[in-house]
Amino acid sequence: MLSKEFLSSVSKTAMVRRVQQFIPKVKPEYFTKHGTAGIRTPVISTKGEFVKDILELVGKNSFHIVNYNSPGATGAPAYSAFIIKKLQDKGFLDYS
């Protein structure tokens, strides 16, 4: 297991092959830069680059937070409070 994890950490192609088990149409050439290993859910731009920022997507009846990465979710309580305040200020929540 260690060698498999290490290989996918240093080889973009090896990592993509692992991803192909779940998303068969993904190809190594879709990615222009090698990422770093870890448990992450990064968004990848149309240019094949990792998006570093948190994305907040507002829909008509929804609010989505995408690309939030915090080691051990240590920032989750503070960020959650920030988002609730933001939604209240914009009138999305009817209660305080």
Model description:
The protein is of the alpha+beta class. The chain folds into two domains: 2-51, no CATH class; 55-89, no CATH class. The protein is built from three helices and four strands, in the order H-H-E-E-E-E-H. It has helices at residues 2-10, 12-19, 76-89, and strands at residues 43-44, 50-51, 55-58, 63-66. The strands form two sheets. Strands 1-2 form a two-stranded antiparallel ribbon. A two-stranded antiparallel sheet has the order 3-4.
Keywords:
96 residues, alpha+beta, two-stranded antiparallel sheet, 12% strand
The outline comes out as elongated
Tell me the fraction of residues in β-strands, as a range.
5-15%
The radius of gyration is 17 Å
Largest sheet report: 2 strands, antiparallel
Fraction of residues in H or I helices: 25-40%
Mean pLDDT: 79
What is the element string, with H for helices and E for strands?
Answer: HHEEEEH
Number of domains: 2
Low-pLDDT stretches: none
Strand order across the largest sheet: 1-2
Number of strands: 4
Distance between the termini: 49 Å
